[in-house]
């Protein structure tokens, strides 16, 4: 999981670099196209039927994944790297809420507390003017888009839970770029910029490190208990802080660090609590 966190943080760093000139939706398109090629190759290698059984929900999962990715990449290119990463990582608390509504999973007090603490963490990171006075630390619209990405990611995870009984994991992975690649074309074309050779190299690297990170995450989830794996995955946030300070002069404030601790602490607590509850049943 530590290797996965490192490569996911490198992905965020590369998206930030590419986004200095390229629109975020253009980055989404290239990333989706590359992952689509990787996913198709893995399906063929495994001899799995790529089209699955529950096509309706597979398409919906692909669309929500596309929306989550689009919002996250927008956040990375418009917000400090660590802040965008942290806001996206608030998605587990929304997953708990949505799983209770749509899957009938029991919503516990720790889940509700996690929602409150995570949203409080987002407020401390954004420091909106209507609460703190003066100018907002971050653009409220940019924060809203990043937070929407966390919600769409949570919806995707809930759908994945619904699909895991009927679909091969590789099929679920395949439908994400299968939908995201064509869906990103109309949103990328209006502001499209022809990449330089350097930028094409960065875009290729984004696809490669994303694939490595996903493979490492899959292996990590098989080797580690879920709660511990979740905790280790938050090393990505630490890496994001380091990359932001080193490459982009993005230094956190005291309040944003407190907000980060609230988000990380609440989501790890939920994961560990769920792991303990699963052992007790």
TrEMBL record:
It is a multi-pass membrane protein. GO terms for cellular component: membrane. It is found in: Membrane. The chain crosses the membrane at residues 29-46, 58-76, 82-103, 110-131, 143-160, 167-185, 197-217, 229-248, 254-273. Keywords: Membrane, Transmembrane, Transmembrane helix. This is DMT family transporter. PANTHER family: ACYL-MALONYL CONDENSING ENZYME-RELATED, SOLUTE CARRIER FAMILY 35 MEMBER G1. Its main location: membrane. The lineage of its organism: Bacteria, Deltaproteobacteria, Bradymonadales, Bradymonadaceae, Persicimonas. The keyword Glycosyltransferase does not apply. It comes from Persicimonas caeni. Residues 2-126, 145-270 form the EamA domain. The keyword Nucleotide-binding does not apply.
């Amino acid at each position: 999981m530590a290797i996965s966190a490192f490569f996911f943080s490198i992905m965020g760093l590369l998206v930030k670099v590419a986004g200095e000139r390229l629109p975020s939706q253009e980055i989404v398109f290239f990333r989706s196209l590359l992952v689509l090629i990787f996913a198709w190759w893995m399906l063929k290698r495994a001899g799995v039927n790529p089209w699955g059984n529950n096509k309706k929900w597979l398409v919906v999962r692909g669309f929500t994944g596309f929306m989550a990715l689009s919002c996250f990449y927008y956040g990375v290119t418009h917000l400090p790297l660590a802040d965008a990463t942290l806001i996206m990582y608030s998605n587990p608390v929304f997953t708990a809420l949505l799983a209770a509504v749509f899957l009938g999973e029991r919503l516990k007090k720790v889940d509700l507390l996690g929602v409150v603490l995570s949203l409080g963490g987002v407020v401390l990171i954004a420091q909106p003017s209507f609460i703190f006075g003066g100018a907002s630390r971050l653009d409220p619209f940019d924060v809203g888009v990043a937070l929407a990405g966390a919600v769409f990611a949570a919806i995707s995870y809930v759908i994945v839970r619904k699909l895991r009984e009927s679909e091969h994991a590789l099929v679920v992975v395949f439908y994400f770029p299968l939908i995201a690649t064509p869906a990103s074309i109309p949103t990328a074309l209006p502001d499209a910029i022809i990449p330089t050779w350097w930028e094409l190299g960065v875009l290729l690297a984004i696809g490669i490190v994303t694939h490595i990170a996903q493979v490492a995450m899959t292996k990590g989830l098989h080797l580690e208990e879920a709660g511990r794996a979740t905790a280790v995955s938050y090393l990505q946030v630490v890496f994001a802080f380091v990359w932001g300070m080193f490459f982009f002069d993005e230094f956190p404030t005291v309040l944003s660090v407190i907000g980060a601790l609230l988000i990380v602490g609440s989501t790890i607590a939920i994961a560990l609590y769920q792991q303990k509850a699963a052992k007790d049943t």
